[in-house]
Amino acid sequence: MNRDAALATPGFGDVFTDHMVTMRWTAEMGWQATEIGPLTPMSFHPATMALHYGQTIFEGMKAFWRPDGQRAVFRPRDHARRFNNSARRMAMPTLPEEDFVTAVETLVRADAAWVPEARGHNLYLRPFMIASQTALGLRPADEYLFMVIATPSRPATMEPKAMRLWAAPEYIRAAPGGTGAAKCGGNYGGSFIVQREAAANNCDEVVWLDARERRYVEEAGGCNLFFVEATATGPRLRTPPLSGTLLAGITRDSILRLADSLGYAISEEPLTLDAWEQGCRAGRITETFACGTARSIVPVGHVVSTRQDWAVGDGVAGPVTSRLRQAMLDIHHGSAPDLHGWMRLVNVGE
Ligand code: PLP
Ligand code: COI
């Protein structure tokens, strides 16, 4: 598929841009120079450590087209910081934040023509790092490969359909002391069995509960969760606290700041699955939405488990969800002022 056809067809993660960035690290030499070249398949020795012990981490971030012809990347420094947190947890080398940001910008500049123009569309950037040493000893590798690749993200419709979430308390994603707050490959591989179960039950995603009591809502697959509570003074946004077992979403943080500036009360407080159901049934919780880089802001319409099945509000996007979604899109595409300094402009020299 050529670029124009790819950009005109809905999809995510199915076609890739023309270039990739690579940077290598060895224990002896540290980080080597950043290289950009054509995107090509790579060959690896069968004993490459990443293939065996899961020392792989990644980020997911977005670049947007701007009406002035430039491109802008959303909160790249914050993604760099989280990438390094993941690296530390996985005993991998950290990358100077400036090098991470430069690598991402280099790819956006080379593949600027791949950044879709339509509102809600974007170029999804995937920085990642793998243990590239050939060895089978059970220890952290002495060689790593950092790369950035990109795929245009083209939603099928402007208004996302409300999600159905599947709660399966017999499975957990992360336990205290584990890797839940890191963006490492194993967290995702370990979730697929439940994602498959969710799909078999006509659900779009899994909602993860805490490992100790299997009662508290933590996050959903690939996204954080927000609950909109009705209070006497107006809507209040509630989200589970960063307990160490869920990912500190950059979108989650952005929504907390945005909600505050839009005048909504906010709270980071745990909520049990049962309290969520009762709150919805009693009208105290009027909306729920999921948020993340890939998914953006998506309403949750139903929650299903083997013993429960309830609708959230009217089962469609509520007013607070829609308002926050539009406010984020306005910032992303430069139609509202970037009051928080989130957009990093990439001069593509057109
Ligand atoms: N939680 C998990 C497990 C994720 O994979 C993601 C996606 O990156 C998120 C939450 C949302 O994080 P962010 O908003 O930084 O994309
Ligand atoms: C993201 O939103 O960036 C994610 O990582 C979710 C998923 C594509 C892994």
From TrEMBL:
<dbReference type="InterPro" id="IPR036038">
    <property type="entry name" value="Aminotransferase-like"/>
</dbReference>
<keyword id="KW-0028">Amino-acid biosynthesis</keyword>
<comment type="pathway">
    <text>Amino-acid biosynthesis; L-valine biosynthesis; L-valine from pyruvate: step 4/4.</text>
</comment>
<dbReference type="InterPro" id="IPR018300">
    <property type="entry name" value="Aminotrans_IV_CS"/>
</dbReference>
<dbReference type="InterPro" id="IPR043131">
    <property type="entry name" value="BCAT-like_N"/>
</dbReference>
<keyword id="KW-0663">Pyridoxal phosphate</keyword>
<protein>
    <recommendedName>
        <fullName>Branched-chain-amino-acid aminotransferase</fullName>
        <ecNumber>2.6.1.42</ecNumber>
    </recommendedName>
</protein>
<keyword id="KW-0100">Branched-chain amino acid biosynthesis</keyword>
<dbReference type="InterPro" id="IPR005786">
    <property type="entry name" value="B_amino_transII"/>
</dbReference>
<dbReference type="InterPro" id="IPR001544">
    <property type="entry name" value="Aminotrans_IV"/>
</dbReference>
<dbReference type="Pfam" id="PF01063">
    <property type="entry name" value="Aminotran_4"/>
</dbReference>
<dbReference type="InterPro" id="IPR043132">
    <property type="entry name" value="BCAT-like_C"/>
</dbReference>
<dbReference type="GO" id="GO:0004084">
    <property type="term" value="F:branched-chain-amino-acid transaminase activity"/>
</dbReference>
<dbReference type="InterPro" id="IPR033939">
    <property type="entry name" value="BCAT_family"/>
</dbReference>
<keyword id="KW-0808">Transferase</keyword>
<keyword id="KW-0032">Aminotransferase</keyword>
<comment type="pathway">
    <text>Amino-acid biosynthesis; L-leucine biosynthesis; L-leucine from 3-methyl-2-oxobutanoate: step 4/4.</text>
</comment>
<comment type="similarity">
    <text>Belongs to the class-IV pyridoxal-phosphate-dependent aminotransferase family.</text>
</comment>
